[in-house]
Design goal:
It contains two helices and no strands. The chain is mainly α and about 40 residues long. The mean pLDDT is about 70.
């Protein structure tokens, strides 16, 4: 699902994005969000 989003995003924007780099950034953001949220 994430790869499909990257492909459609590439089509609509002239900027080419490396799916692996984007995935790493998303995982880093998720880790930061998860570390900031304490239940």
């Amino acid at each position: 699902m994430g790869i499909g989003n990257c492909v459609t995003f590439q089509v609509h924007t002239p900027i080419k994005i490396n799916p692996q780099e984007l995935e790493q950034q998303i995982t880093q953001m998720e880790e930061i969000i998860n570390s900031n949220i304490k239940f």
